[in-house]
Design brief:
The complex is a heterodimer of chains A (359) and B (392). With 359 residues, chain A is mainly alpha-helical. Chain A is built from 20 helices and three strands. Chain A folds into two domains: 3-218, Transcription Elongation Factor S-II, Chain A (Up-down Bundle), CATH 1.20.930; 234-358, no CATH class. Helix content of chain A is 57%, strand content 4%. The radius of gyration of chain A is 22 Å and the shape is globular. The N and C termini of chain A lie far apart (67 Å). In chain B, the strands form six sheets. A four-stranded antiparallel β-sheet of chain B has the order 2-1-3-11. In chain B, strand 14 (355-359) and strand 15 form a beta hairpin. In chain B, helix 1 (3-19) packs antiparallel against helix 3, helix 9 packs across helix 10 and helix 10 (247-259) crosses helix 12 (273-290). Chain B is globular, with a radius of gyration of 26 Å. Chains A and B meet through helix 9 and helix 16 of A and helix 6, helix 7 and helix 8 of B. Chain B: The active site is at 98, 100, 295. Chain B: This is DNA primase small subunit PriS. Chain B: One of its GO terms (molecular function) is metal ion binding.
């Protein structure tokens, strides 16, 4: 077992290493191996901050915690958990390989314990479908990806700029920056992690995990991810969303991710497409048709995927996290901020924006 | 349609199929087959979920059954004759495009003649093929005249066979230009200093290399060059036709074009705010002018049944014809899709709905009543429900 396997436990080589070591998962969970605690941590972290948490210092424990986590997710068997977990594994892997590839020199890569771009692409059968624009694969800063694999990974994901129609597709290939190629790899990880879930878990493994499963169910219930808010009080919006809405209403140009963030937020709190158009209308440059299209898309009406509001981490990485206040310190998601703010507000003083529009 | 007409058409379809030399699609035995028989019931009932095993050889089946319409699936399956899609076991699917005159914005049903509709459809087909060949780089294309009001394109490249509905929808949206957005099309680059959101230090460029961006750039350059070649007042008048462009902005945009033509040629459209507004409008023009108005559900459905090339269309009596790519320009559906079987003899028909028709290089004007006409015309009128078979 190599540290590389522990960092990327979803890779085929990692799985083979576990198999080669002839480790019996039933024994691991029955004796309460540290991998169980770390496995639970992987899933809990996925729910709490969209990552898989801090790695365990022992390679063996870290690697084994991955099959344990998959088993836990399978026993709980809630779509929202499975999705969050797969996204979190992908997000953590993405962070790791982005750092690793940035610091990897060709000398280091021969040692076998750093991931190379070649290995990453080969892992997901992308190597033969990705071509560096110039020079060797590892040194290029622009790549051409065949349209089939591009669509497998990007269709229905992310924002407008990922839609094929907005890409300069040429002779069957889509050009991508290196960072965009790594986003596609992140999606490939997510698909890999999600595939096969939920697993059929034998009783010998499921029974000793009763406490962990109960704890996960509790965490899920606390987060109440399925709750409908359906209350629109702009004064209680998190500062990031208030700032974006202000800019729209002032008629300023928003970048896609920003527009996506505010629109998905408004959709998540129960606003209809018509209401969003009305709220934006102050800005003539926003374009009613575009707003409708985008809102329907986010809502999942014109696309099979329903998009959710970006987390604080994503907002930060795009530079959309502004004017943080005390409540921001306690939450990790703009939706959590808004729910918390609604809970604390005096009900009599809360007026839904939609009701004030009617009068 | 009366029984004697139905019997006549079925018999003559049979004669056609006995002589015809059909090339079935690749992997014919992995596909689902379906057909519509010549029945008297008002609703058309398709017999489907048949495999090649059930039918025997396609040619024998067609000569024996003499169906009104014949279809095969875009999809390939483990068990093509299973009665539900779930049980069939989907393996892969060709990517199929359908251009139908009924869905073309350039066609006015009831006003345009059949020949005009088909000509509009061929224009749309050229646009579609440009996307499929230039942008998508597809190599295994089969272009087919549908026998009715349009064209089909079957794409069989390996790289698209496994695509799911969602990915196919992205392809549909691409050729139709749906979701194309100016802001997403241009690449924004911070130029010097900090990249503050409202900082003006942004350079917006359109890539000239391909895709819609390349098309948009081409159209912008064509327009710019035309504007610069015309005299000042005409150019300004032309520019003020765009929303939000007054005389002042038009003059500013024109000056910017003149001074920054090389920049524009390289794709930098951020030469002046007024010009950006013009470019935005030009992108909309490109979508309107260049998109291929395909029928979306056909392409996104991985289980779609499509007409068999080489078969006859029961609603026109015309042949569903594969068209060689380099013969597309010369292909005239109203001549080249007339089946040989129906050429060279006359039959008697009783016309119930008269009018004018161009077929096989001739123009026919006929009134209601009994006429002796070339058989291909008679078959066409009967299949369309405009005539019944008369006594010979």
């Amino acid at each position: 077992m190599k540290p590389l396997h522990a960092r990327y436990p979803f890779m085929r080589a990692a799985r083979e290493a576990v198999e080669a070591a002839e480790i019996d998962l039933a024994t691991v969970v029955q004796r309460g191996d540290p991998a169980v605690e770390r496995g639970l941590d992987r899933v809990e972290s996925a729910l709490e901050d969209g990552t898989v948490g801090e790695p365990h210092r022992q390679t063996r424990v870290e690697l084994l915690s991955y099959p344990v986590a998959r088993v836990l997710v399978s026993i709980v068997d809630e779509a929202v958990l499975t999705r969050s977990y797969a996204r979190a594994e992908a997000a953590s892997a993405h962070e790791r390989f982005t750092d690793e590839l940035a610091s990897t020199t060709q000398l280091q890569s021969t040692s076998g314990d750093s991931l190379t771009l070649r290995e990453l692409l080969a892992e997901f059968e992308l190597l033969e479908h990705v071509r560096p624009e110039a020079g060797p694969l590892e040194e290029a800063d622009r790549y051409w990806v065949e349209v089939g694999p591009y669509l497998d990974l990007a269709a229905g994901q992310w924002g407008e700029e990922w839609r094929l129609v907005n890409r300069p597709l040429t002779d069957g290939e889509v050009p991508l920056e290196e960072s965009e190629l790594l986003v596609l790899c992140r999606r490939a990880v997510e698909q890999r992690v999600e595939s096969g879930l939920p697993l059929t878990v034998p009783d010998a493994i499921a029974e000793p995990l009763g406490d962990e499963v109960a704890q996960l169910r509790e965490t899920l219930a606390e987060l109440d991810l399925t709750r409908d808010i359906d209350t629109v009080v702009p004064d209680l919006f998190p500062p990031c969303m208030r700032a974006l809405l202000d800019q729209i209403q002032k008629g300023e140009h928003l970048e896609h991710h920003s527009r996506f963030a505010i629109t998905s937020f408004l959709t998540s709190i129960g606003m209809s497409t018509d209401e969003i158009v009305e709220l934006y209308e102050i800005n003539p440059g926003f374009g009613e048709e575009m707003t409708r299209y985008q809102t329907d898309h986010i809502r999942g009406e014109t696309s099979p995927t329903e998009y959710s509001t970006p987390s604080c981490a994503t907002m930060q990485s795009y530079g959309d996290c502004v004017n943080m206040d005390d409540r921001c310190e306690r939450i990790s998601h703009p939706m959590a901020y808004y729910e918390d703010a609604l809970d604390e507000a005096d009900e009599d003083e809360v007026t839904d924006w939609r009701e004030s529009q009617e009068s | 349609m009366e029984e004697r007409t139905r019997a006549y058409l079925r018999g003559r379809f049979g004669d056609h199929y006995r002589r015809a030399d059909l090339t079935p699609p690749p992997d014919a035995s992995e596909r689902e087959w379906g057909y519509i028989p010549w029945t008297s019931s008002p609703g058309t009932t398709m017999v489907r979920h048949r495999s090649l095993l059930d039918l025997g050889s396609i040619e024998d089946f067609l000569a024996r059954e003499r169906p009104r319409h014949v279809y095969f699936s875009a999809g390939r399956y483990d068990d093509p004759s299973a009665s539900s899609m779930g049980q069939k076991g989907w393996r892969s699917s060709d990517l199929v495009f359908d251009l139908d005159a009924d869905h073309l914005p350039s066609v006015t049903p009831g006003e345009d003649t059949y020949a005009e509709m088909l000509a509009s459809c061929k224009d749309a087909l050229r646009k579609l093929l440009d996307f499929l060949e230039t942008d998508f780089g597809f190599e295994q294309l089969t272009v087919v005249f549908s026998g009715g009001r349009g064209y089909h394109v079957h794409v069989r490249d390996e790289g698209i066979q496994h695509l799911d509905r969602e990915s196919r929808r992205e392809i549909v949206d691409y050729v139709r230009g749906i979701g194309l957005e100016f802001d997403a099309l241009v690449e924004e680059e911070a130029v010097g200093g900090t990249a503050g959101r409202s900082s003006p230090a942004h350079k917006r460029t359109l890539t000239t290399e391909g895709g819609w961006s390349g098309r948009a750039h081409g159209h912008i350059m064509d327009t710019v060059e035309a504007l610069l070649a015309s005299d000042e007042s005409a150019a300004i008048e032309r520019l003020t036709e765009y929303d939000g462009i007054g005389d002042g902005k038009a003059a500013a945009a024109l000056r910017a074009m003149r001074e920054n033509t090389d920049q524009l040629r390289a794709g930098n459209i951020d030469i002046h705010p007024a010009f950006v507004s013009v470019a935005n409008a030009l992108v909309e023009e490109v979508v309107e002018g260049d998109n291929a108005p395909i029928d979306e559900p056909v392409t996104t459905d991985t289980n779609r049944l499509i007409r068999l090339p080489g078969s006859l269309h029961g609603g026109s009596g015309l042949a569903v014809r594969r068209i060689d790519r380099d013969e597309l320009d010369a292909f005239d559906p109203l001549v080249d899709a007339v089946p040989e079987t129906f050429v060279g003899h006359d039959i008697t028909v009783e016309v119930t709905d008269g009018g004018q028709i161009e077929l096989y290089g001739d123009s026919f004007t006929f009134a209601e009543g009994v006429h002796s006409v070339p058989e291909y015309l008679g078959v066409f009128l009967m299949a369309r429900g405009r005539a019944e078979k008369g006594q010979e």
